[in-house]
Amino acid sequence: MKAALIFLLSITFSSLITAQEAPRQTFQEWLAELRSEASQQGISEQTLSALDAVEPLERVIELDNSQPEFVQTFTRYLSLRVTSNQVSRGQALLDEHAALLNEVQNRYGVQPHYLVAFWAIESNYGRATGGFSVLDALATLAYDPRRADFFRRELLTALQIIEDGHIAPENMSGSWAGAMGQLQFLPSVFYQYGIDGDGDGRVDIWNSLPDVFHSAANFLSNSGWQGDQRWGREVVLPDNFDYGLTGTRNRKPLSEWRDLGLTQLDGSPVPVVDGMEAAVVLPAGASGPAFLAYANFRATMNYNPSTFYALTVGHLADRYAGGGPIQRMPENEQAMTVADVRELQTKLNELGYDSGEPDGRVGSRTRGAIRDYQEANGLPMDAYASRELLDSVNAALNQ
Fold first, then answer.
1. How far is 260 from 256, CA to CA, in rounded Å?
2. What pTM value is reported for the model?
3. Angle ∠(181,34,22) on CA atoms, nearest 5
4. Is 116's pLDDT higher than 50?
5. What is the reported pLDDT for 277?
6. Domains of the chain
7. Residue 9 above 70 pLDDT?
8. At what angle do helices 209-222 and 295-303 cross, to 10 degrees?
């Protein structure tokens, strides 16, 4: 859940202190005002004393600028998270906690191998929950004026969680983005979906596996998880496939994808289930693997709005169940740096393809500009930002 902030955060630490964007208040003045607001909302002085030592952390902003979804290729992202050791560890934990996971499945409809895959990706099976004070991290982000309201609400909610007795402030640890515990829940998600699975009167997603699994399943169930479906599958696209049909927003019934010539890896037709829709996802562009993504893929993206993340969770779950590696991974995939993407955006704009203000982030506007450029130049319309595309754009400008 920490990476659900991926598309909310793009600040640098210098932006906190530049003359153009400097907040009118000092940090201590700002914190005093927040403390007064929390008090008016019923937070006790005992809880508010946790703010006495809070200070902004430069490291929080440094980590924001090296988020893996921005600087890693899909090949690299997947290889770091799906290894033979991770698969065997997950299979062992599925057996060890089978009774608890089956109990959770019966209540919420989320299959055990998916829950363990989320657990693996979010915190390495509970072994890497982040070493930051959640209060410090959220205060750092809330002090920046551009997203002050969002993170101010999260910080106030974190104080309410402490007030309610779920966790002591000194034990409220998490990621640099303020996501907490083995699930990496933001405070607002914890507050809305946290479940006391062990019946001790507290929601403890740091130490209690019943609380961890009940809370994760409750969130996924409320995000549209379908307990009788898989997440998606790798497929083969026909030679004449229209890449303009790709993307998570372009969903079609499975029967339409089958009629368009999509097959399973062994060449058999794509299975069709009445009422099920899917989107074609290309995490590495037209030269990489293709996936049909179902409703559970979309539910996964509610946990973290990254296609890399959602594909990795689904694939890891498949591996627990005996599935094999992804078959059509690209060779020698090269990462686009933030500077590369900024250059691409700038040059697309120069060519008349509106990618918005160059910021080094590939959002929907940049993907639209890429797709328009590809269509105009007879390239596969996969909307994928690559070094090959940057070379093509540079060549077009130099003609």
1. 6
2. 0.89
3. 100
4. yes
5. 97
6. 232-320 (1.10.530.10), 338-398 (1.10.101)
7. no
8. 120
